[in-house]
Amino acid sequence: MDRFVLQGPVGPEIIIEGKSYLFFGGTDYLGMAGRPELARGAEKAVARYGISSSSSRISVGTTELHLELEKVISRFAGTEDAVVMATGYMGMDALLSAVLEKDDMILIQHNAHSSIREAVAVRTPSCLEFKIDDLGTLEEALRKISGEAGRIIVVAEGVSPLFGTVFPLPEVLKILMERNSLVLLDDAHAFGVLGEHGRGTAEFHGCSQTNTHFCATLSKAFGAFGGCVPGSLRLTEALRNRSLAYQGATPPPAPVVGAALASFEYFAENQELLQKLHENAGLLKQGLTRLGLPAENPSVPVAPLCLGSTEKMQNLCERLLEQGILTPFSTYPGSPEGGMIRLAVSAVHTSEQIGFLLECMEKFI
Length: 365
Ligand SMILES: Cc1ncc(COP(=O)(O)O)c(C=O)c1O
Hints:
The protein contains 14 helices and 13 strands. The protein is of the alpha/beta class.
C-alpha cells in the first residue's frame, strides 16, 4: 500500500491525512503542478475537445491542441519541430526508433532509468555499459567495439532522477570525436530545469552539436503530463514514420495538453522562476555542505542523502515528519540497496522553508 496519499495538488505544501506538510520531494521543479492557470487551461481544453481523442496520432487522434503544443515546445527548445506523445516513459524508445540503423552499437549508462533500459533491451539482448562518473569505462567500451560496427549510439539520462548528476556531455563528445556517433539523452529532469532558458542538458553545457538528441517529459518541471521529443525536422519526421509507440498510442488527453500549453505560457511570462529554482537548489546544497553532507551539482534541484543504514534514514524521515516535513525515503528503481532519501526543491519553496528543513536536519542527523 502507498503510505502517503495526496488529498490535494502537489506543491511545496501538500495535504496528507488532513494535515499540511512541507514537501521536499517529487519533480514539480517549477512549482507548476498546482497552479490555477494550468487548471484553467485544462478546463478550457476539456470544454472544447472532451477528454480523449480516442485514436492514435496517425488515425484521427491529433487535435489542433497537440499541434499547437508541438509548436510551443519547439519554440521553447529552439528546435525546428517537436513531437508530443502519450508519456515521457516512451521517449527513449521513440528516439531509438527514429535514429537506429542496422549495425549501430548502443552504449548505455550504467543504472539508467528503466524507461531507457527497456527501450534498449527490446532492440539488443546485450549492449555495453559505461559509468558517467568514470568515463574511462566509456573509453574501455569503445575499445571493445570492432571497426566494422556501425555508429556508436550513447544513451543516458541528462540528469539522473535520484542523484541529480548532470551528464558530462562535453567530455563524452570529446571522447566520441573520432567516431561516427550519436548521443541520446533522456532530459526528463533537465527540461525546464537546466540551462539559461531551461532547455536542458545541452544548453547547460553550451553544446549545440547536431549529433545530440533528447527526449523530455511534461509531467515534471512543467507540471502537466505527456512526453515530447524536440528536434530537427529530419528527426521528428523519422520518429513519426518509424516509432510504433508514437503510431500505436493515443496522445495525451486534451485537458492535459491544455494544461501544458498554459504551463509554457506561464513560464514565458514568469522567467524569474528558473532563476529562483537555481537559487533554491544552491541554498539547499550550501546548507547540506554546512551539515557536512555531500552536495554536488549546485544548479540541480535534487540532492541524494545516503546515510549508511536504512534504519538511520527512515528514522530521520520520521523525525522530520513529526516536524511537518515530508522528505520521501526512496526505494525507486535505481536506488542504492537499503534505499536513500531523495531531497528536491522547487522554484516556489521559500528560503524560510528551506532553512527550516536544514535546521531540523541538523537537529536529527
Ligand atoms: C529519467 C526518466 N525518464 C522518464 C520518466 C518517465 O516520464 P513520465 O513519468 O512523464 O512518463 C521518468 C520518471 O517518471 C524519469 O525519471
